Each structure stands twice: as structure tokens, then as C-alpha cells.
From TrEMBL:
One of its GO terms (cellular component) is cytosol. One of its GO terms (biological process) is recombinational repair. InterPro entries: DNA_helicase_UvrD/REP, P-loop_NTPase, UvrD-like_ATP-bd. This is DNA and RNA helicase family protein. The keyword NADP does not apply. One of its GO terms (molecular function) is DNA binding. The lineage of its organism: Bacteria, Pseudomonadati, Bacteroidota, Flavobacteriia, Flavobacteriales. Keywords: ATP-binding, Helicase, Hydrolase, Nucleotide-binding. The keyword Ribosomal protein does not apply. It comes from Tenacibaculum maritimum NCIMB 2154.
Length: 599
């Protein structure tokens, strides 16, 4: 019986299930098919009962894609997990205050100087703030605490779960593996268990594609306890025979195959192990040794790129081929904005990814725009968007951009006025390529090409603040911002140009984390155990020597996701040397004929 018919059977018997769907299997299509089946067969009843089908997604991008595929059908509520949870619990303000106060009390015991007890006496309501962290004193709950708060609300409020079951008889959860364990607990242990006859929950995803540390990963515990039943999807519509054969060796819980009617490409796989490094000297520090290998690693990398180009791989902008690299810092370096990333990392630490690559920092947005977090639509407000409009001859967009920023700079009634604007933009294009960030920044302000956002104004005001008399924490934060700004202004502006290309997916580099769901003709996966030691250890995964099960699982999933992006040909390049035991396992997976040693 094919997958969709198995799902239909579960629906008719009202049995909750999990669809375990390997890479390239058409999981989202199966999800849409399920929703359409529910609309066709249960829609009239759902409408009469004033109910809705719920589809929960992990990201706004997925949410918008599903809404579009369903043509905005009013019978279906498509929502991110945070939106859905908040929608469920927000009517119960009295209970929310009690549970929110409990979370604050727990925090108070850990950090009494930061959290004051007795919060329930100081706030009258709780609101969702769509931010990572909560602002307890103002009654604003953030992403992380919303998950905890929802669990407590589901657990301690039976009426809530009864009402939800009567409103939403069918709940489908996309990318279940990245959903927080607490949320799965809320949905299965409390909502489903209490209302088995009234509700069906379907989970869609792949335990081997968990890429976020906060996700549950596997639902085996719930399958074994028979709270939900397992359905597997063995098709792979994406990859060549060689790649699928490799994927089936990496994982054993699904045996994938190319479905009938799909062109069967042979493709190829290769593993390249770099062993041409000197050994570490007796008293040499590890970091010093690893740094000494970087020049040779770069040579190895460049040689492989050159070889692949000769074989027809295309590494130009917007190509069908992709290079996947583990660490953001490496991607930034290869993408031509390495110093920019380092500058952000010094100031924001692990938050550099959000501040720079996700463009959640006002300075980043000033130069390269940002993305609306709710709709995932590009906000074309950065100066690089203006340049892009000009280079693509989108003159109406240029006018809208300039008018939005400063009405006085736009007057197109005379030819002379048009020429002034064109001359300004052309001069900007030239200085972008050769000058520092400060030079471009000053040019933009002097020529009134862009105005500051509120966030940018606050930052400028902060770095001008007299720190005398301020408390130590505030003083340190301002001093860090001043140092960050000084370093940033001295960087070559071309790094922002390269960052913009990266955000628009115009360059060939990507982190392996950011590729789930994507596919490319040819894929080069670059692994290096010196890149992110606390999170990933490829040699320890291959030879099973890593004593951290969490890291081993994380490495396995990242390796699987990376390899499964390839439609035709896959090359894995190990820039850090893989030992003898690791190579034995790699040989089992890839075959000795597909292994190359660089000596």
C-alpha cells in the first residue's frame, strides 16, 4: 500500500501517526495531499461544526509555502508552532499569570539579582512578544519561555485541552524532528491522550534530519508506547542511484528507492581524505598546530575545486552546484566576508549568525536590508538593494527607494535632476568596490541616499553616550559597541557587497545547516573536525569513538542532510585527516573505488 493510502486508512480509523519521510521523498507533497483529502472527505462536517484543520510549521517560509499550495483555504489554519501555542493559551489570562509567575520564581532562585519574586503582584496580563527572551516585568513572554508556559497550561488545564480538541479535530505537524520535546509532550501526552476519540494528530518529518539542538529528533518513545503509529515513505524523487545507495548505508530505518516513472540517473559519489599534513610536535599547542595546517588545507581545497571544474562542475553565481561547509566563519571566509564575520563574532559571540547572516542587526540591515520574520519576505531597504535596482534597470524601484528615504533627493521633472541621481549611484558603485565601510557610510549620509532606521539611530546615540557615572554593565556594553563600530568602519566595504550576494543566494557557498529541503545538481561537502569541535566530530562519528552521544547524533544528521542534497554527483572532502578506523567505515559506505587519498 502506498504512503498516502496508509495515511487515509489511519484517518478513517482516527489513529494518530508519524510519517517518517527520508530526504527527497516528497514529504511536503504528502502533507498537502493529506490536507486536501481531509478537505474533500471531512470538510463539510468540519465547516458545520465551526472547526478547522490545523497545520503547524517550523518556519514562516514553510508556512507561506503551504498557504500558497492550499490557495489560502479558510478551512485550514496554517501556523508556526509559536503562533499556534500562543493562540491556544492566550484567552486564559488568569492561569497564564500564575504559570508565568512560576517561571519567574524559578529564575529568581537561580539569579535573584536579575529576577524579582512576586511578579504576579506587579503585572496584570501576559503577552507574546515574538522575541527570544522574555521581559517578565512588562509581562512579555519570549519564544523559549512560551514553549515551557504552554506545556504547563496544557498539563494543568484540562478544560483548555478539551476546548482545543473540539475546535481542531485534525492537527498536522510539519518537521516534527525540530519541534521541542515539551511541545510534543503538550500535543501527545495531554491534548491527544485526553481526547483520543475527538482528535487525530499526524507528524511529518525525518528523525535523521534534525538540525536544531532544541528539537526532539525521534518519536520512537511514542511509537513504542503505541500513542502514535509509524508510517514510512521509501521514495526518493531527488537523488541519483549512487547517492541513494550511500544514504541507505548511512541510515537503516528506511530503505529508499527511485520510484517508478522517475528517470534513474546513475550519478557518482567520492570521498577525498587529506593526509598530506605534518604530525603535531611534542610540545606544540593544539591551536598552534591546527593554525599551521590552514595554508595546506587551502591548497588542498583549491586543487579539488580546480579538478571539479575540469569535470564540468560550475561554481559561478547562481549555479546548479553547491559547496556545503560546516561553520559560518568558513562560509564567510570563502564567500569574501570573513573579516566582517570575525568583527561581528567579536562583538556578538554566537549571536553573530543572527546579527549578520540573518540580518537582525540594524547596522547590517542598513547596508544589505533584512527579511520580515513573520512573512519571510525580503525587505529591500538596504543600500545594496538600491545598487541592485540600478544594475538591473529597475528604475521605478529606485524612485520608490529614494522617496522612502528622503523626498527632497528625488525630483525627476528635469533631465538634469535624473542625471544627478544617476551620477550619485554610479559614484556609489565605484567607491563600494575599493573604499572602506566608513567612506561608503559618509557618502550615503552626505548625499542623502538613505536615512537611519530607529534601531540605527539608537546605536549611533549609544556610541556617542558619555559613559561617566553609568553602571559597569552599561559602560562595558557601550564600550563594546564603540570598539565594534570602529573596527567595522575600517573594513573594506566589498565585504558587505559579498555578504549581500550570500544573503541573496548568489554565491556558491552555504552552511550545511541552511540547506535542508534544498537540492543541487552536484554537491561538494567540506568537513573539517577543527571547525566546530564542541558540536561536530566527523572522525568520531565514522569510527564510533566519540563518547558524546549527542554530538555523534548531531554529526550523523548533518552528514546525512548534506549528502542528501545531491541530485547527481556528490563529493565529500575531509580537510582534517580521517584515521584508519574511520576510513574503514567510509570504505564500507563509499566503496574503495570511490575513495581518494591526498598524500
Amino acid at each position: 500500500m502506498d504512503t498516502i493510502n496508509q495515511i487515509k486508512k489511519k484517518i478513517e480509523k482516527n489513529i494518530s501517526y508519524v510519517l517518517e519521510a527520508g530526504a527527497g521523498s516528497g514529504k511536503t507533497y504528502a502533507l498537502i495531499q493529506t490536507i486536501n483529502y481531509l478537505i474533500e472527505t471531512k470538510g463539510e462536517k468540519i465547516q458545520l461544526n465551526n472547526q478547522r484543520i490545523v497545520c503547524i510549521t517550523y518556519t514562516n517560509v514553510a508556512k507561506n509555502e503551504i498557504i500558497e499550495r492550499l490557495q489560502n483555504n479558510p478551512l485550514v489554519l496554517v501556523s508556526t508552532i509559536h503562533e499556534f501555542l500562543w493562540d491556544c493559551i492566550k484567552p486564559y489570562n488568569k492561569q497564564l499569570l500564575i504559570e508565568f509567575d512560576k517561571i519567574n520564581t524559578v529564575n529568581n532562585k537561580k539569579e535573584p539579582s536579575k529576577y524579582e519574586s512576586g511578579l504576579i503582584n506587579r503585572i496584570k496580563s501576559v503577552e507574546y512578544s515574538d522575541r527570544k527572551f522574555s521581559d517578565f516585568e512588562n509581562g512579555k513572554i519570549g519564544h523559549d519561555d512560551l514553549i515551557t508556559l504552554s506545556l504547563k497550561m496544557f498539563e494543568n488545564n484540562k478544560l483548555l485541552t478539551t476546548i482545543l480538541a473540539s475546535k481542531y479535530p485534525y492537527i498536522l505537524v510539519d518537521e516534527y524532528q525540530d519541534t521541542a520535546p515539551e511541545t510534543i509532550q503538550s500535543l501527545v501526552d495531554f491534548l491527544l491522550t485526553r481526547n483520543k476519540k475527538k482528535i487525530l494528530i499526524g507528524f511529518y518529518g525525518d528523525s535523521h534530519q534534525k538540525i536544531y539542538n532544541t528539537g526532539i529528533g525521534s518519536l520512537n518513545e511514542y511509537i513504542i508506547s503505541k500513542k502514535i503509529t509509524l508510517i514510512t515513505k521509501p521514495e526518493n524523487y531527488r537523488s541519483s542511484h549512487s547517492v541513494i545507495k550511500l544514504l541507505n548505508k548511512i541510515r537503516t530505518n528506511i530503505e529508499q528507492k527511485i520510484p517508478d516513472g522517475i528517470e534513474k540517473k546513475q550519478g557518482s559519489i567520492q570521498f577525498i581524505n587529506c593526509t598530506n599534513y605534518t604530525d603535531k610536535e611534542k610540545n606544540q599547542k593544539t591551536k598552534e598546530y591546527e593554525d599551521s595546517l590552514v595554508p595546506l588545507k587551502n591548497v588542498n581545497y583549491d586543487n579539488i575545486i580546480s579538478t571539479l571544474k575540469k569535470k564540468g562542475w560550475n561554481f559561478s553565481e547562481n549555479s546548479e552546484d553547491k559547496i556545503l561547509i560546516i561553520a559560518n566563519s568558513r562560509v564567510a571566509k570563502r564567500g569574501g566576508f570573513g573579516d566582517l564575520y570575525t568583527t561581528y563574532a567579536r562583538r556578538y559571540g554566537q549571536g553573530a549568525n543572527e546579527a549578520l547572516l540573518k540580518r537582525e542587526n540594524p547596522i547590517t540591515a542598513f547596508f544589505v536590508g533584512s527579511m520580515d520574520k513573520k512573512t519571510s519576505i525580503e525587505r529591500k531597504t538596504g543600500i545594496e538593494h538600491l545598487v541592485s535596482f540600478y544594475e538591473n534597470k529597475n528604475y521605478n524601484d529606485i524612485i520608490h527607494f529614494l522617496k522612502r528615504n528622503d523626498d527632497t533627493s528625488v525630483n525627476l521633472r528635469k533631465h538634469e535632476d535624473k542625471k544627478i541621481i544617476i551620477d550619485k549611484i554610479e559614484e556609489l558603485i565605484k567607491i563600494r568596490e575599493t573604499k572602506k565601510v566608513k567612506d561608503v557610510f559618509d557618502f550615503l549620509i552626505n548625499n542623502k541616499l538613505i536615512k537611519f532606521s530607529q534601531g540605527m539611530l539608537r546605536f549611533i546615540e549609544r556610541i556617542k553616550t558619555d559613559t561617566e557615572g553609568l553602571d559597569e554593565n552599561t559602560k562595558k556594553r557601550i564600550e563594546k559597541d564603540i570598539g565594534f563600530n570602529s573596527s567595522l568602519m575600517e573594513l573594506p566595504y566589498i565585504e558587505f557587497v559579498n555578504l549581500f550576494k550570500h544573503t541573496q543566494n548568489q554565491n556558491v557557498f552555504s552552511t550545511k545547516h541552511g540547506t535542508k529541503g534544498e537540492e543541487y545538481r552536484n554537491v561538494l561537502v567540506v568537513i573539517d573536525d577543527t571547525s566546530w569541535k564542541s558540536q561536530y566530530k566527523f572522525e568520531g562519528y565514522f569510527d564510533n569513538s566519540d563518547n558524546s552521544n549527542e554530538r555523534k547524533e548531531r554529526t550523523k544528521n548533518l552528514f546525512y542532510v548534506s549528502c542528501s542534497r545531491a541530485k547527481e554527483n556528490l563529493v565529500v572532502l575531509a580537510l582534517s585527516k580521517m584515521g584508519e578506523q574511520a576510513m574503514k567505515q567510509i570504505e564500507v559506505w563509499f566503496g574503495s573505488e570511490n575513495i581518494k587519498q591526498i598524500k
